[in-house]
Amino acid sequence: VVTVKVNYKLTESATDKIIVSGKFSRIASYSTNFSPYGNQANQQEIQNTLAIMSAEEIRNRLILFIEHKKK
Hints:
Elements: E1 2-11, E2 18-28, H1 36-70
Antiparallel strand pairs: 1-2
């Protein structure tokens, strides 16, 4: 099992005021086998996938924040 914990914040550069922040985690599992190389490759693939999923989640949350702020 691989867990990624994400904390993010968007700050205003001039004042360092936090505009929006949040945290979440993503969990995934992968199959193991008798090959150490195969296990490491599977783990790295899952870590890459979780990193992409986390980036997409942050993007989606920022889009929702911006859209909500426009109303």
